[in-house]
Amino acid sequence: TKSGFYSKLLVIMHLTSICECEAQDSQAPVRPASSAPWKQWKPVLDDLTAPSYTTVKLSTLPPAQIDQSLKKKNGRASFLAKLAQTLCFGLKFRELAQVLEALTAGMYAADQLILKAGMLLFENHELSSPHRTNFFVRHCRCLGTADKKATALEYIIYCLKRSEHVHLRTFFQDHLRVHRKMIRKSERVDHILRGYLGILDYIEWLPLASGQVASEGENAEEGATGAEAYHGLTIAARAMDNFRMLLDHEGPFDIFIIKLIHMLEFYGHLDKAESVLEEYLDKNPENLNAHIYLYTFLKRHNLRAEERIDVLHKICGMDPSNALVLDYIDYIYSLEGSGSAESVRMVADFLDSFDNKDSLEGWTWLCRTAVQAVHRKEKQLLACLKQLWKERRGYWRPYHFNVRLQPTGCPEVWICKATLLRVLKLDDRGYVSSVEEKLAELGADTVDAYNTFAEKMLQRPDSESTLMD
């Protein structure tokens, strides 16, 4: 299109200005040398960018370096794309700017490559600025085949890396104004854009909130003044208004909700915070984080114990590998005073997750439950533990009870596993002896500490304590 053509011309001018600035900067740091044969490729690039280009002078280069396909337009585009990739890897940004010029001027279908390589150039060039980058990105969005969302995201990430929040605010406000002028505008998109503006308000509010906390504590001299506290309250109110609008829509707006809850808690509006979390959960019942946020909030403020446990039980059902499973198990034990078949299977499922396979809390609970069942002669619980081993031993032996102990493993976990096998009198296939040999390789003081830990595992559990104490 005509607008795309003029945008390409502006991109060329901008890349040229960056290239010229780098050439004039005599104090520019030396870039690492590229592994690419740049001196051999330079004449070809000059030919490709010449106004009266006809054919490439291949006689000056080795045949292995330059293919005959350069005589075709697609071949030239492929050559320039590969050259740009090589220069990116070699951090040769001056030459990269020249290649991007050639790609842009040649009217090749390489808009996305121009965007990606151009952003890399702006991120690493010492003379780049958010203003220059914004100019580049704004015109790249007019290119025909460039991904508009990717273009916007590139600029957002660029500004976040440099904490350029003022430019980000302008960026979102511009998009909000453009969206509201559209014929088929979406209220949801409008509120999401306002949510991002709320994030920027939240970032601005954080240091003011920290200053207010300091003024109320021991560091009163370094605290916020009354004017700063009022300014922080104004910013917080603006951010919370932007966040609340998202509650009218379904969707994973976790990043906005947790910021809203933090602000409401800071100013002591616990009822409003609880109402927000419940409304968010009602709109997103399948969102695991919505359940977790509500549970952790209720637990943090010790509110509504029964409802809190119901939410925790749902979390365990939705994600058996979640660390909150241990909270639920500990709560059940505090009520019943002993383990149960359901609890044993929940912990086993938790430990089967790769992230939790070496969880000391999980193996301690399972080990102490087995010891308790033996001491109290709880036949039903013992039968459950042995049945669990019978069902899973096929993959538990290589997965959990491998005789080849990893050097980075946790000795306390090894002891819990060995104790579990010994207490239940299970066929360990040499696992217990492997643990003993591994512990014997450690120093005497360390071995004594681990022996003390092993004796604790074999003690009769106190009925008034939890199994993970």
Provide structural commentary.
It is a single chain. This protein has 21 helices and no strands. The chain is extended. The protein folds into three domains: 161 residues, no CATH class; 132 residues, Serine Threonine Protein Phosphatase 5, Tetratricopeptide repeat (Alpha Horseshoe), CATH 1.25.40; 135 residues, no CATH class. The chain is mostly helical. The C terminus is likely disordered. The longest helix is centred in the middle third of the chain and has 30 residues.
What is the terminal-to-terminal distance?
70 Å
The total count of helices amounts to 21
What is the strand content? under 5%
Biggest β-sheet, characterized? none
Model regions low in confidence, pLDDT < 50 over at least 5 residues: 22-38, 51-67, 219-223, 463-469
Our Rg estimate from Cα atoms comes to 32 Å
Structural class: mainly alpha
Q: Give the total of beta strands.
A: 0
How are helices and strands ordered from N to C?
HHHHHHHHHHHHHHHHHHHHH
**What portion of residues is helical?**
55-70%
Give the overall form. extended
Number of domains: 3
Mean pLDDT: 76
Protein name: Putative tata box-binding protein-associated factor rna polymerase i subunit a
InterPro entries: SL1/TIF-IB_Component (IPR052669), TAF1A (IPR039495), TPR-like_helical_dom_sf (IPR011990)
Signal peptide: 1-23
GO cellular component, one term: RNA polymerase I transcription regulator complex
